[in-house]
Write a structure and sequence with these properties.
This protein has 169 residues and is of the alpha/beta class. It has one domain: Rossmann fold. 43% of the residues lie in helices and 18% in strands. It is built from six helices and five strands. Strand 2, helix 2 and strand 3 form a beta-alpha-beta unit. The termini are far apart.
Length: 169
């Protein structure tokens, strides 16, 4: 097959994971695809760098980012072990950056991903209008097919509690 031809059968599927219920749904769908097509899954969490803000004494931005990375790596390791038990080949990664969509796009190129499974969060209001959504940017700029799973708007604008995250991850 010529190099510029896109195959309908994925061999490497990237799933951006933010540990929300939406990304959990995307992981379930990607797992089904990986199982059906004997594809490899790449789970990626991007820890957003926060702008410099006043922090309590003794707390640094670097320590907050490192704690977030360690937590994400722990969650991804659990997912990897669970999927490996189902016979799915999985690679995981945690990256840090201001541009989450950019980090996802870099991973697509670096790891030669041929399909992305990503979810929306159903967010409304001014934020996505002004800044755009991560999923929208990935759809527009990804060089490979993207499966977008529309998920309902969260009932609350608050983040999922860490205890609920542990149920999923």
């Amino acid at each position: 097959m010529p190099e510029d031809t896109v195959s309908a059968v994925p061999t490497k599927i990237l799933v951006p994971i933010d540990f929300s219920s939406s990304s959990h749904t995307a992981l379930e769908v990607a797992t089904e695809l990986a199982d059906k097509f004997h594809a490899e899954l790449f789970l990626l969490n991007v820890v957003p760098e926060s702008p410099v803000v006043a922090l309590p004494e003794g707390v640094t931005e670097a320590s907050i980012v490192e704690a977030a990375k360690a937590q994400a790596e722990g969650h991804l390791a659990k997912s990897k072990n669970s999927l490996a038990g189902k016979g799915i080949t999985v690679k995981t990664g945690v990256e840090v950056g201001y541009d989450v969509a950019g980090a996802i796009l870099e991973a697509i190129d670096r790891d030669q991903i041929d399909q992305v499974v990503i979810s929306t969060h159903g967010v409304s209001g001014w934020y996505p209008t002004v800044f755009g959504s991560i999923a929208e940017k990935v759809i527009k700029l990804a060089p490979c097919p993207v499966l977008l799973l529309r998920t309902p708007k969260p009932k609350s604008s608050t983040k999922v509690s860490s205890s609920r995250l542990m149920e999923w991850w």
